[in-house]
């Protein structure tokens, strides 16, 4: 089965740029989606199809995907961005099953 | 307003059954790809199942043969029938919309319903 690998944690100071990676075999050939989850809340889609943003998501959130790594970039990080972030793909090689990465805890210092 | 509201969670003994419901408003369940995702206490998100707009269904290996996803078009509601429940099925269960013309990111989520499997 397809595996997505994320770093457990990323720390960044306010105003700086946070980059959260998501590794997978030839992930560049798949569409990657990113979710933000704050404690006690349901996940929120922040980036879909590698780099598109749903309406209402700040332009500070962006994504890229190439080779074996997809990246979620959060520019000008704010305290309110502190959350868990998950990458996700639909694995077409196994009946389009959903696959999530293990999640990355973003800490704003 | 586009919204999903789950219900049906609770405390159930190992080996028991439970049916979760996910009522949609603001869009049509049968015209969309719909998914269930769960989160065990203190753990990450785990995909559980998806139903295509055409009716095809797919499951994670961990629940295949025990869980069944379905929908009632007249009630605009998604369901997850869970049988032979195990302690490891304990989690918050979320339903989510996963696209219209094709599988996409899950852009609408319910608030979650908690399932606890314990004797």
Explained architecture:
The complex is a heterodimer of chains A (109) and B (119). Chain A has 109 residues and is mainly beta. Chain A has no helices and nine strands. In chain A, the strands form two sheets. In chain A, strands 1, 3, 4, 7, 8 and 9 form a six-stranded mixed sheet that branches. Chain A has a three-stranded antiparallel sheet with strand order 2-6-5, with no helix packed on it. The radius of gyration of chain A is 13 Å and the shape is globular. Chain A starts with 8 loop residues before the first strand and ends with a strand. With 119 residues, chain B is mainly β. Chain B contains no helices and eleven strands. Chain B has strands at residues 3-7, 10-12, 18-25, 34-39, 45-51, 57-59, 67-72, 77-82, 91-97, 108-109, 113-117. In chain B, strands 2, 4, 5, 6, 9, 10 and 11 form a seven-stranded mixed sheet that branches. Chain B has a four-stranded antiparallel sheet with strand order 1-3-8-7, with no helix packed on it. Chain B is globular, with a radius of gyration of 13 Å. The termini of chain B are far apart. The model of chain B has no long low-confidence stretch (mean pLDDT 96). The A-B interface holds A 1, 31, 33-35, 37, 42-45, 47-49, 54, 84, 86, 88, 90, 95-103 and B 35, 37, 44-47, 50, 58-61, 94, 96, 98, 103-107, 109-112.
List the helices and strands and how they pair.
The complex is a heterodimer of chains A (109) and B (119).
Chain A: E1 9-12, E2 18-23, E3 33-37, E4 44-47, E5 61-66, E6 69-74, E7 83-91, E8 97-100, E9 104-108
Parallel strand pairs in A: 1-9
Antiparallel strand pairs in A: 2-6, 3-4, 3-7, 5-6, 7-8, 7-9
Chain B: E1 3-7, E2 10-12, E3 18-25, E4 34-39, E5 45-51, E6 57-59, E7 67-72, E8 77-82, E9 91-97, E10 108-109, E11 113-117
Parallel strand pairs in B: 2-11
Antiparallel strand pairs in B: 1-3, 3-8, 4-5, 4-9, 5-6, 7-8, 9-10, 9-11
């Amino acid at each position: 089965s397809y595996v997505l690998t994320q770093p457990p944690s990323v720390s960044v100071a306010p105003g700086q740029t946070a980059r959260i990676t998501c590794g997978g075999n030839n992930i560049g050939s798949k569409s990657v989606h990113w979710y933000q989850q704050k404690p006690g809340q349901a996940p929120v889609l922040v980036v879909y199809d590698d780099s598109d943003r749903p309406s209402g998501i700040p332009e500070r959130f962006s994504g890229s995907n190439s080779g074996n790594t997809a990246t979620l970039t959060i520019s000008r990080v704010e305290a309110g961005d502190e959350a868990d972030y998950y990458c996700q793909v639909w694995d077409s090689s196994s009946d389009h099953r959903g696959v999530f990465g293990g999640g990355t805890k973003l800490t704003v210092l | 307003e586009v919204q999903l509201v789950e219900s049906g969670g609770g405390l159930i003994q190992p080996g028991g059954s439970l049916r979760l419901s996910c009522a949609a408003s603001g869009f049509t369940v049968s015209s969309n790809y719909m998914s269930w995702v769960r989160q065990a206490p203190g753990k990450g998100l785990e995909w559980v199942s998806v139903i295509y707009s055409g009716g095809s269904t797919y499951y994670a290996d961990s629940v295949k043969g025990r869980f069944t996803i379905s929908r009632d078009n007249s009630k605009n509601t998604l369901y997850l029938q869970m049988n032979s429940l195990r302690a490891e099925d304990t989690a918050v269960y979320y339903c989510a919309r996963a696209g219209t013309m094709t599988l996409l990111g899950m852009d609408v989520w319910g608030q979650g319903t908690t399932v606890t499997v314990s004797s």
